[in-house]
């Protein structure tokens, strides 16, 4: 039996039936990593000895009659999460030897659910890129084409899932960091509603793991099936027990609908600030066709959709003002001078990013007030629609680009080039107002690269886009393993 690409749900059923043991699944995953990860470089911090011990404990617990949500399932964890005894560097060389003494709250939840942690997955420097490479751990390659990026900043996790290195992974998302790697690698990911899942212990070293919520930032699940996302989200969801968790628990409302024909869906594939590449547009259209074929009400336009240009501007302002404030910038005065020299007529995304890098607190409050207007606009839209389908980025995975100045990088969209960070406009659409968004694969581009889309849902109604993802998975076929992974596993051999 080939287990390596089975879903977590299928593996749990096999474990409960006694068809396989956690030790066997864990050894199989480790063998796969040792065989294939030299070419992919997804697992930057292996933890195989402790994983084997956890697998033995899981089998013993099951033999005693225990059953937990992830008991015995091999998983990986993004490098940016604190795991006691393992390095947490965020790819920053000066913290190469930093190892926290306690687990992040989400790592603790994984362990409490019975998961077996195989190790940590690669990230970009400071989690500040749409690719995953750094001086400590090197470059993570896309399993479909090693000359292309796996995405960032959860690129190691997406590449690991696509390669069969564990059934689940946990990542984080501030600028598409869950959704973009999923799109590039052909797997599933879910960006939860802002504040739904506690983030303590997902902090840049050597910062203390305090229960601080960073604007825009979330932690969330990655998987090879839509149902597995829901399984893992149920483990991750809930407030921090040190703060809000003292006062309340989370009970997510059920999905608005169970049948595809009952959904009302808005499909958007054009952005005023950046074109949509032909491969991604084709992926959006495949989803629209599947929705219509399933009887869903599909619309392409509505006056209820918040203004996409202003949404992108607000998102870039919030993103870059927050990022610069958290990470020291040596040339801050130079940035102030450059921002002051901008023409008042320059309303490009590049200009918005530069101005945001030197925001005053008054500037930020004004921008945040504009965000609240957009949030209300989304509430009005979701009174008429259940979900919005749109791109995650304008293109499939692009070739590695390690220019040390990302502001000089360019993104090729069907032969024309655009500023590198302009591709964040789509990822920022649900991030700015804090909405949930589920990334799903839609098939392959003519070049043989995965193409995904995101399903945006109403705030705290995460089960609605997740259920829609499940129904679309049945129509579209879901995850496909890259061709290099077709060699038999240890168990099958």
Automatic annotation (TrEMBL):
Protein name, entry field: Amidase
GO CC annotation terms, alphabetical: endomembrane system
Species name: Kribbella rubisoli
Domain Amidase span(s) in chain numbering: 24-464
PROSITE patterns attached to this UniProt entry: AMIDASES
Pfam families in the record: Amidase
């Amino acid at each position: 039996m080939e287990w390596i690409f089975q879903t977590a749900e299928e593996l749990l059923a096999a474990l409960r039936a006694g068809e396989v043991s956690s030790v066997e699944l864990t050894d199989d995953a480790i063998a796969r990593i040792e065989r294939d990860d030299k070419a992919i470089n997804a697992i930057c911090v292996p933890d195989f000895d402790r994983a084997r011990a956890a697998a033995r404990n899981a089998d013993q617990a099951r033999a005693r009659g225990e059953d937990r949500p992830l008991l015995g399932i091999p998983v990986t964890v993004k490098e940016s999460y604190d795991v006691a005894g393992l390095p947490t560097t965020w790819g920053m060389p000066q913290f190469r030897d930093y190892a926290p003494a306690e687990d992040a709250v989400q790592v603790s939840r994984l362990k409490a659910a019975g998961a077996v942690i195989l190790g940590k997955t690669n990230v970009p420097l400071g989690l500040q890129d749409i690719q995953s490479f750094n001086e400590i751990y090197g470059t993570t390659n896309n399993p479909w084409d090693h000359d292309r990026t796996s995405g960032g900043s959860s690129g190691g996790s997406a590449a690991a899932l696509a390669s069969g290195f564990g059934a689940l992974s946990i990542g984080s998302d501030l600028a598409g960091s869950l959704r973009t790697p999923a799109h590039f690698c052909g797997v599933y990911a879910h960006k939860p509603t802002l504040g739904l899942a506690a983030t303590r212990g997902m902090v840049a070293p050597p910062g203390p793991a305090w229960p601080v919520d960073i604007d825009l930032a979330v932690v969330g699940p990655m998987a090879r099936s839509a149902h597995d996302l829901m399984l893992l989200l149920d483990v991750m969801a809930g407030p921090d027990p040190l703060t809000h968790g003292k006062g309340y628990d989370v009970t997510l409302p059920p999905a608005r609908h169970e049948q595809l024909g009952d959904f009302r869906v808005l499909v958007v594939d054009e952005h005023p600030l950046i074109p949509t590449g032909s491969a991604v547009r084709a992926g959006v259209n495949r989803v629209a066709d599947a929705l219509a074929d399933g009887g869903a009400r599909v619309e392409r336009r509505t006056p209820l959709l918040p203004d996409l240009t202003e949404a992108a501007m607000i998102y870039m302002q919030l993103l870059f003002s927050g990022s610069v404030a958290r990470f020291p910038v040596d040339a801050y005065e130079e940035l102030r001078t450059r921002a002051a020299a901008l023409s008042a007529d320059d309303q490009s995304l590049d200009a918005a990013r530069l101005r945001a890098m030197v925001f005053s607190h008054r500037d930020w409050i004004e921008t945040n007030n504009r965000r609240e207007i957009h949030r209300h606009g989304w509430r009005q839209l979701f009174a008429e629609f259940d979900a919005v389908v749109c791109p995650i980025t304008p293109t499939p995975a692009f070739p590695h680009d390690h220019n040390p100045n990302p502001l000089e990088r360019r993104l090729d969209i069907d032969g024309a080039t655009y500023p590198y960070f302009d591709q964040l406009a789509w990822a920022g659409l649900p991030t700015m107002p804090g909405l949930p968004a589920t990334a799903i694969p839609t098939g392959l581009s003519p070049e043989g690269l995965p193409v995904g889309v995101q399903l945006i849902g109403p705030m705290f109604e995460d089960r609605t886009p997740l259920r829609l993802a499940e129904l679309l998975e049945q129509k579209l076929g879901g995850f496909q393993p890259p061709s290099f992974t077709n060699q038999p596993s240890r168990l099958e051999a």
